[in-house]
Design goal:
The protein is of the alpha+beta class. The chain has helices at residues 32-36, 62-76; strands spanning 2-8, 14-19, 50-57.
Length: 93
Amino acid sequence: MKVIYKIMYPNGKIYVGKDITDTLNYFGSADSKLIEKDFSREQRQDFTIRKEILWESESASDAEVSQKEVEFITKLCSNDPSIGYNQWPKFKG
C-alpha cells in the first residue's frame, strides 16, 4: 500500500509526506533542525506527534503518489512556514 500522511506536531504545525512501503513507524524526512527550533528543551521531554493517513492506493505508480503528495501539501498549506514544515514546493505566500 502506498500512502500520503500528515504528521501533527504539538505546536499545531503539520508535515505532509508519502510512504511507498506503508511502514507503520515511518514519520517522514522533515528537517529536524527546523522542527527543533520550535520547541524548548523542556517541551522535548514529553513529545507526542500524530500520524494520519490522508490517502492510500494499492495501484498508484510512484509518480502518481508524488503528485498526490504535492496536491496535499498545497491543499493543506504545509509548505507555509507558519502552518507546516514542508519546504517543497516553495511557499509563494
